[in-house]
Write a sequence for this structure.
């Protein structure tokens, strides 16, 4: 059956001139163009910008389903904004729902859910004020980061700290730049992995695990996924997929990532970030709206290792959503 697909895109944030925002806008543009190209080979596709006119434009589009790429406009639960509008209008869509996006975006909420569901995650503290008392049970080093950002925003080479004064200095700086809260998390000194998941329930596909090796990154940018590493040092970051790990560790990582996916109620696709210390995997966070830029994005690297081409990956994500939804109906029918 042929469907008319609405590809919902973010409006470029031209008023923002930071390196972070420019890089994110460029990645989104490339991704959107490529996904439009892929979907157009099989379906009728229309681009819909997530701006103030989106409700009117969605109503008038006569689409069957939305392939959502929008991270929302602003606010602590912005990734839930487009799903909320689509729910209100009764339009089926690809990806996680309102609550899952909200919880995944706010790392402090996600980590509390993980703990409830016995998903191992590093110990942490939530800061709304730089003067809050530091939990003495937290073990240094700590990594300090915004609770509600993605793509490495707010995470830099100086984000890993080794004493309390540095915690307060970094928390104070981030509170001036980003919406609270700020997360202080025990930094797991070990290997870093990410796990791509496509599908739902018992039928979901866990892609080959990707290891991210930072040994060739200059020390000042951090041996972890800082913004500078993501944006500027892809050529110095070593990616191994499938990750060179034992079968036992692979099973542990995949099981924990799948459990985290289910704990937040994610749907259709997500990427789960993991660090391993002493052969114990710790879930750092879930990206419920992972990047899909060809070649560059981790999910596309993992799909390629599984023998899934970029075109096949995009179609598979859409078809998993259609299968979950059951029967996709026209908005105006």
């Amino acid at each position: 059956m042929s469907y008319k697909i609405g590809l919902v895109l973010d409006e470029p944030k031209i008023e923002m001139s930071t390196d972070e925002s420019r890089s994110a806008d460029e990645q989104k543009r490339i991704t959107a163009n490529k996904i439009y190209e892929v979907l157009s080979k099989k379906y009728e596709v229309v681009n819909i910008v997530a701006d103030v006119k989106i409700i009117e434009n969605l109503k008038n589009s006569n689409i069957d389903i939305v392939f959502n790429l929008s991270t929302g406009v602003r606010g602590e639960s912005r990734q839930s904004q487009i799903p909320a509008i689509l729910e209100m209008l009764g339009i089926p869509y690809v990806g996680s729902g309102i609550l899952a996006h909200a919880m995944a975006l706010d790392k402090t909420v996600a980590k509390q859910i993980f703990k409830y569901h016995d998903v191992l995650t590093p110990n942490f503290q939530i800061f709304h004020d730089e003067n809050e008392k530091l939990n003495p049970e937290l073990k240094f080093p700590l990594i300090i980061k915004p609770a509600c950002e993605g793509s490495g925003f707010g995470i830099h080479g100086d984000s890993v700290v080794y004493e309390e004064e540095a915690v307060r200095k970094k928390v104070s700086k981030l509170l001036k730049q980003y919406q609270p809260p700020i997360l202080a998390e025990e930094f797991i000194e070990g290997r870093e992995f990410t796990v791509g998941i496509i599908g739902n329930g018992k039928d979901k596909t866990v892609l080959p695990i990707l290891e991210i090796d930072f040994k060739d990154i200059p020390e000042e940018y951090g041996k972890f996924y800082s913004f500078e590493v993501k944006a500027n040092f892809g050529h110095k970051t070593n990616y191994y997929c499938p990750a060179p790990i034992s079968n036992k560790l692979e099973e542990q990582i995949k099981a924990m990532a799948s459990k985290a996916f289910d704990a937040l109620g994610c749907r259709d696709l997500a990427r789960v970030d993991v660090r391993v210390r002493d052969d114990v995997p710790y879930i750092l966070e879930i990206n419920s709206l992972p990047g899909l830029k060809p070649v560059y994005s981790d999910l596309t690297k993992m799909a390629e290792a599984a023998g899934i081409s970029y075109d096949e990956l995009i179609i598979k994500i859409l078809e998993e959503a259609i299968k979950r939804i059951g029967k996709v109906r026209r908005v105006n029918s």
